[in-house]
Specification:
heterodimer, A: mainly alpha, 12 helices, 72% helix, 2% strand, B: 455 residues, mainly alpha, two-stranded antiparallel ribbon, 14 helices
Chain lengths: 350, 455
């Protein structure tokens, strides 16, 4: 692995994906969990827990999309047009989630809130599955022909193969666990304890599904396992092992922050491991690995990559600074009333 | 219908819907920033109430804007794969920069602004509103820079079948970026001021003693006059001059000039454009009202300057004249109306008569949607006027001419008409529902009356 600009951008796109998975991942998980909340008060807590931060978290996806467009345009163009209908579904779901979070508190009618709660829950659950399905399809290889056109030769239904659905389940269960661990930090009492139990249950299911997905990957995508002689590969595996052990231990012993950190490390390491295994391939082709999009045959020019690096190095530290600050402002448990942004002070007339 | 037409239709629907919201967000964010500043520095609880009232409206608009904006960013890849591959080396960077420099700022501080009242000091809370406004305005810069590169590409050479960057600075600050950016931001500020003035006018109509209504009205009208003036002079004028210099075919279309004029080109103030003559049909203007020489002077500062007409361009390099002409002229008419309305309102505000001028107040209320309409018309003129190019012809960095990239060859070859048709129908339904909900909530929330102020 030589540290050229292409590799740096491979890493940076990876970092953006990890940032999105860790941050909006818990939003999606909390949203999916809200489908199983017991009453409106509990759902208010779900919304309040992510209310001030979900919007900033979603920007990681937009920035990741922009970075992919800028650094590896053929990947952005080929994959996005290839995944056309799946992406459109994803967008509808994300729209539903975004507006439901803002709209649900605006009218104090039970039916109004209920409708938006459904939109919030389903609008979170669907992306949690679809992101995994997308990752599954990429890991499995997508039907692209030779460059520089990388013509797509697949169909929408081809995206719904058993392997990718399995990876979709892995991601959905993971995000539910991740969301439960986050929400547990923001709540107190009975619901917090229940979330701990939910997280542990989800953990077991996740572990089984992840093992099955790994086995299926070894069978279906042997080309991803050519780095097994690299010490970095095994270092990441070892770290993932540590995170996977620490997660249930910390959850059981009530160390909420540590449990959430372990969960964040788990998703980060899973992504890193997949990225390292694929490197320097970005999107393998199922029509012959020689057609794969790599960080070299699908990249922008060194000038653009260099300019983008300057943008990232100036902008990202500032962004991380205020993001961390705002998380600290909203630290601590939430109350159901926090779900309503502008608070009291306005009344209806006429 | 073929995939190309559907892809274009989908683009128009997506951007058209999205572009309802950012001008309101940008403008309202600055109006709020002013109100919150006054509330904080003057310890004036009425301005805090103004902040609460309009903060709600901003939150609703921002949510729909974000939701529709994501679709925008993904659409280049899904629907315009050929275009995305051709311009990726240049076009992606501003989009990524928008995320890093602007959108994170806006979204993160929006959370603090909406949920932070009482949690952070008043100064920090005001700072959050400032960062929302700054973020939204910066956001517009990167998007306009990217779109302007399509209009007047610069800082690139065509190599390896794509546009490759030679200078990021020249690409971002291409000839049309700044004229268009100032024009768009001024339009957004007009939009925000009209929302504030109109909503305030409703409150004053309901209760002439409403303090919140009176103070918001003052802010909206006074700033509205300033912004409406700037929008036309200098920013609208400068932008038109830039179009005349850099995109002569587009200029001829928006001004309704079919045949070239060697000197004293007339400014068409009003006309009905239609097609006439035998094959090939020529566009023509009926019942025109023209001012001789004015167009030459406005475009080039010289009554004697020649102006090229559409007929001077090959037929396959002409934008549609009808849509461009009509949208441009209606936009200009609206811009002049905004200036006139705000001038009258400012005068009556100065004399104090505005609070009893029910007709004027009612006009302000009903004028709320007009700046949004003007923004849409301006966008139609800009984008339809760019046709038939997705990237306008120009000059490469090494001095050789660039022949342009045609819209007709830029869509995704692998996405079928059926797929686009399905998603277009789906999104049209989603947008109609969202638009209706947004309108319903905006009207409902705009009519909320703040509780009596507690200092």
């Amino acid at each position: 692995m030589n540290m050229d600009l292409n590799t740096i951008w491979f890493v940076l796109v990876g970092v953006l994906i990890i940032g999105y998975a860790v941050l909006d991942g818990f939003d999606l998980g909390v949203g999916a969990l809200s489908l199983f909340a017991r009453d409106k008060t509990e759902r208010d807590l779900h919304v309040a827990a992510i209310g001030p931060v979900w919007d900033g978290n979603e920007v990681w996806l937009l920035t990741g999309g922009g970075a992919l467009f800028a650094a590896f345009p053929p990947v952005y163009a080929t994959v996005f047009s290839g995944f056309y209908l799946a992406l459109m579904l994803l967008l509808v779901a994300l729209i539903a989630r975004a507006v439901s979070l803002e709209f649900r508190g605006l009218i104090a009618s039970e039916r109004w809130v209920r409708v938006w709660d459904w939109a919030f829950g389903l609008g979170s659950l669907l992306p949690a599955i679809l992101f995994g399905v997308a990752v599954g399809n990429v890991l499995r290889g997508v039907p692209v022909g030779p460059g520089p056109d990388f013509a797509w030769q697949g169909s929408f239904l081809g995206l719904l193969n058993p392997y990718s659905i399995l990876v979709g389940l892995v991601s959905a269960v993971f995000f539910v666990m991740h969301g439960a661990l986050y929400l547990r930090m923001k709540t107190e009492g009975e619901i917090a304890e229940r979330l701990g139990r939910i997280a542990l249950g989800a953990y077991v299911v996740f572990l089984l599904l992840y093992a099955a997905a790994t086995a299926a990957t070894i069978r279906g995508s042997p080309f991803l396992f050519q780095k097994t002689s690299s010490p970095l590969f095994w270092a990441l595996v070892a770290l993932l092992g540590v995170a996977l052990v620490a997660l249930p231990v910390a959850t059981r012993s009530g160390k909420r922050g540590l449990a959430f950190t372990a969960s964040s490390a788990t998703i980060a390491l899973m992504i890193l491991l997949a990225a390292l295994s694929a490197y320097p391939v970005l999107v393998p082709s199922s029509l012959g690995l020689e057609h794969s999009l790599t960080i070299y045959n699908a990249s922008s020019t060194p000038r653009t990559l260099g300019t983008m690096l300057v943008i990232a190095l100036t902008g990202v530290p500032i962004m991380l600074g205020y993001t961390i600050w705002i998380y600290r402002v909203f630290k601590g448990p939430v109350r159901p009333g926090d779900a309503y942004s502008a608070g009291p002070g306005l009344r209806r007339v006429a | 219908m073929d995939a190309l037409l559907l892809a274009r239709l989908q683009f128009a629907v997506t951007v058209g819907f999205h572009f309802i919201f950012p001008p309101i967000s940008i403008g309202l964010a600055w109006m709020l920033c002013i109100a919150e500043y006054l509330g904080w520095r003057k310890q004036d609880a009425v301005y805090v109430q103004v902040g609460r009232l309009f903060g709600k409206l901003l939150a609703i608009t921002f949510a729909v804007g974000v939701a529709s904006g994501i679709v925008m960013e993904f659409q280049f890849g899904t629907n315009w794969a050929v275009y995305s591959k051709f311009v990726g080396d240049i076009f992606g960077a501003p989009l990524a920069a928008e995320g890093v420099f602007a959108f994170f700022l806006e979204s993160t501080f929006m959370g603090l602004y909406l949920f932070g009242r009482g949690r952070v000091s008043k100064g920090v809370h005001w700072f959050a509103s400032l960062m929302v406004a700054v973020g939204a305005t910066l956001s517009a810069f990167w998007i306009i820079a990217a779109n302007s590169w399509q209009q007047t590409p610069a800082g690139f050479v065509v190599r390896n079948g794509r546009a490759e960057l030679t200078s990021f600075y020249e690409a971002v600050f291409n000839p049309s970026t700044l004229p268009r950016y100032f024009h768009v931001v001024a339009a957004a500020l007009v939009t925000g001021a009209f929302v504030m003035a109109g909503v305030a006018a409703w409150h004053v109509l309901r209760d002439p003693e409403s303090l919140v209504g009176r103070k918001a009205l003052k802010l909206g009208v006074a700033w509205g006059l300033v912004f409406a003036l700037f929008e036309i002079m200098p920013f609208g004028h400068l932008h038109a001059q830039q179009v005349a210099r850099t995109q002569p075919a587009k200029f001829a279309a928006i001004e309704g000039l079919y045949a070239s004029v060697d000197a004293k080109a007339p400014l068409v103030v009003f006309a009905v454009p239609f097609r006439s003559g035998g094959p090939p049909p020529k566009p023509a203007l009926a019942a025109p009202i023209e001012v001789p020489g004015l167009l030459s002077w406005m475009a080039f500062g010289d009554f004697a300057a020649p102006v090229k007409g559409l007929a001077d361009f090959p037929e396959d390099a002409r934008p549609p004249i009808w849509l461009t002409f009509v949208s441009f002229h209606n936009m200009v008419a609206l811009g002049l109306f905004f200036l006139g309305l705000m001038a009258v309102a400012s005068w009556k505000l100065y004399t104090g008569a505005i609070y009893r001028s029910r007709r004027l107040l009612r006009t302000l209320v009903w004028s709320i949607p007009l700046p949004v309409l003007a923004c849409q018309l301006g966008w139609v003129a800009a984008e339809v006027g760019r046709q038939p190019w997705i990237v306008y012809p120009g000059v490469q960095a090494d001095g050789t001419p660039f022949e342009g990239l045609r819209t007709a060859v830029s869509h995704s070859p692998t996405v079928t008409a059926g797929e686009i048709g399905f998603s277009l129908a789906l999104f049209t339904l989603v947008y109609l529902a969202l638009g209706a909900l947004w309108l319903f909530l905006m009207i409902r929330k705009a009519k909320l009356v703040p509780e009596p102020a507690q200092a």
